[in-house]
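Regression test case RT-17, inverse folding.

Input:
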């Protein structure tokens, strides 16, 4: 283990999970637990629970859970060692650096330093003869100022196969490190070459100011037009946004979401320092949660073409689920924000922002654009589709107001529209109730972990295995009665692993708790175990309950062994029959 277990025990003991979570999520006490809106998925009704007694959190909606270190890892998008350091700083502890942890930290810092050196190399090439095409593109065609280019660290990857490799070798970096950072590509012949060639370069900088990756735009007709760094040990495009490191400091009170690097940079140059862009991927729930930490209003300013409209339609519900106010900007008279700014200027764009529609109006307009309301058949189809939009609105007031507007557009009474919306709403509620009833009638399915890789093969045994873990965590001394159990007797590998880890800690005199296993388990494993621990379990007659659980586990393990012996016997019998069939 990279960090001593004793230190982690002291850290989790000092960092009360309720205090840490309360810094990010408003919590209200109900019974023994604290409740709030989950910070990891959008919801209107609180399903996020924090247990001060067990020192765990668990969301009944998305399933995420774990201890205080897990929470910081998820909410701050940090690897385990960085989350430990953040919490240690919070309570005034110094993290003891063992060799494994020191090596991990040193490697991460070296990869980040390599990215920084690469960014300097690309930026310097703009001043060199081989970077003239990039300079003409940025300063000439795109009309960027030198201050903007410097602020964003823009650069140029020259034409050629090994310019970056050679330059970084002179700085002491090996090809294997460049490969790990995604700066080079390995060919079929085993040779490596620069990933970015003859491209304008956009460094991607995280919230801590580190260069974590790059985007590159071609200057000729080659494809792809934009090339981004692959996911690496320091870069994940689904969890980072271009220019958020700058936009998070904006005082404009909202964030503008664009489709590309140049739209974002042009907006910043024009004074709109709240613009960001996703990194060559569709907007993800992680992106939306990240944005919601810095703003209460998001304005989608995607291109006006079909792809941009589709992307906006997908982004709206993702952003709305976080509780943000979502508006959509219609870029009129230009194909994108960059072109609009060049044609009409910043003042016109500011007016356009003020005129941006809320997402409901935008979605209705998109539906309306597909139908001719002078044709009765199309009018009926319009109403069928738009009723679905209205019924999906959370507020009864919104349903009434926008329902009446759609009724007026179609030339029908608001009463008739209201009835249709009510009917659709009732249909959706009935569907949800049936789904819930099916879940209630199939407790075995409810028991199954969300992740397919963790699914149980033997529900009866797994239920008893979960009971053993709950009792052990409620009263570690009950592990004395479980000394007869082995990890192999467990039908579910995760539950067996957790049992072994907890018993080893008990034998070693360490804290027996779920948060203590954070370093040993994956995020999905911790989330499932948090859900297991959140289920009711009584310590009344705890020793007898433990013995009953153990009996079930051992009986089921015995059955599996018999089945295995039976299969082995049948295999031997088959071989003998085959041998006899060929005349011995």
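Golden output:
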């Amino acid at each position: 283990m990279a960090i001593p277990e004793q230190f982690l025990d002291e850290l989790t003991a000092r960092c009360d999970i309720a205090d840490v979570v309360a810094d990010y999520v408003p919590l209200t006490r109900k019974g023994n637990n604290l409740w709030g809106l989950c910070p990891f998925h959008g919801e209107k009704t609180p399903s996020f629970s924090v247990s001060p007694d067990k020192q765990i959190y668990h969301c009944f909606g998305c399933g995420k859970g774990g201890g205080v270190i897990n929470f910081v890892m998820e909410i701050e998008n940090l690897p385990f060692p960085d989350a430990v350091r953040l919490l240690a700083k919070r309570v005034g502890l110094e993290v003891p650096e063992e060799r494994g942890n020191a090596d991990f930290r040193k490697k991460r810092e070296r990869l980040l330093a390599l990215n920084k050196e690469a960014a300097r190399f690309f930026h310097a090439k703009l001043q060199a003869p081989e970077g003239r095409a990039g300079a003409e593109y940025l300063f000439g065609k795109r009309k960027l100022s030198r201050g903007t280019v410097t602020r964003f660290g823009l650069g140029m990857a020259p034409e050629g196969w090994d310019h970056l490799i050679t330059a970084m070798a002179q700085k002491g970096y090996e090809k294997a490190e460049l490969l790990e950072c995604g700066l080079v590509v390995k060919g079929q012949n085993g040779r490596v070459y620069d990933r970015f060639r003859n491209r304008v370069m956009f460094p991607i900088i995280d919230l801590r100011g580190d260069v974590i990756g790059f985007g590159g735009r071609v200057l000729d007709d080659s494809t792809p037009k934009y090339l981004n760094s692959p996911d690496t040990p320091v870069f994940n495009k689904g969890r980072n946004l271009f220019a958020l490191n700058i936009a998070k400091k904006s005082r404009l009170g909202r964030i503008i979401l664009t489709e590309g690097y140049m739209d974002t940079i042009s907006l910043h140059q024009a004074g709109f320092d709240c613009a960001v862009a996703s990194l060559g991927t569709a907007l993800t729930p992680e992106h939306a949660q990240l944005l919601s930490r810095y703003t209460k209003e998001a304005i989608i300013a995607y291109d006006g073409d079909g792809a941009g409209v589709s992307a906006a339609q997908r982004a709206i519900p993702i952003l709305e689920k976080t509780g943000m106010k979502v508006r959509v900007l219609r870029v009129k008279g230009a194909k994108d924000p960059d072109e609009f700014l060049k044609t009409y200027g910043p003042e016109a764009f500011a007016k356009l922002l003020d005129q941006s529609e809320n997402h409901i109006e935008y979605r209705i307009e998109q539906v309306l654009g597909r139908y001719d309301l002078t044709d009765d058949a199309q009018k009926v189809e319009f109403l069928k589709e738009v009723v679905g939009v209205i019924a999906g609105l959370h507020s009864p007031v919104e349903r009434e107001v926008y329902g009446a507007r759609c009724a007026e557009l179609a030339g029908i009474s608001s009463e008739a529209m209201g009835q249709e919306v009510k009917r659709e709403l009732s249909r959706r509620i009935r569907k949800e109730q049936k789904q819930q009833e099916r879940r209630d009638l199939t407790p075995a399915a409810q028991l199954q972990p969300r992740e397919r890789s963790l699914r149980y093969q033997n529900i009866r045994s797994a239920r008893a295995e979960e009971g053993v873990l709950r009792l052990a965590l409620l009263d570690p001394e009950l592990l004395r009665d479980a000394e007869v159990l082995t990890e192999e007797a467990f039908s579910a590998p995760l539950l067996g692993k957790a049992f072994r880890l907890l018993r080893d800690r008990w034998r070693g005199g360490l804290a027996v708790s779920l948060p203590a296993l954070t370093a040993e388990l994956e995020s999905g494993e911790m989330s499932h175990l948090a859900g297991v621990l959140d289920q009711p379990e009584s310590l009344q007659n705890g020793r007898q309950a433990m013995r009953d659980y153990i009996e079930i586990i051992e009986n089921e393990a015995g059955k599996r062994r018999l089945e295995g012996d039976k299969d082995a016997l049948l295999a031997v019998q088959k071989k003998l029959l085959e041998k006899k069939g060929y005349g011995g």
